[in-house]
Design brief:
- This protein is of the alpha+beta class and 67 residues long.
- The protein has one domain.
- The chain is built from one helix and three strands.
């Protein structure tokens, strides 16, 4: 079952609240991965080794934004 744009928009609002206080997070957006919409977390620096961008088999994306 594909993740719809509406589902991604709802998840984005929750994610923004959860990630708001974390260092390095500079933004949260929506992207498309295959047939699914997914959250895109923009970071100020690369994730440490061993930190996964996937959660519960849902598509996700993390990108380092240029300073």
């Amino acid at each position: 079952m594909a993740i719809t744009l509406e589902q991604a928009r709802a998840a984005k609002e929750s994610a923004k609240a959860m990630l708001a206080g974390l260092p390095g997070v500079v933004g949260v957006g929506i992207t498309k991965i295959g047939a699914d919409y997914a959250l895109k977390v923009n970071l100020g620096a690369p994730l440490p080794k061993g930190v996964s961008t996937s959660r519960r088999s849902r598509p996700a994306s993390a990108q380092v934004s240029p300073a």
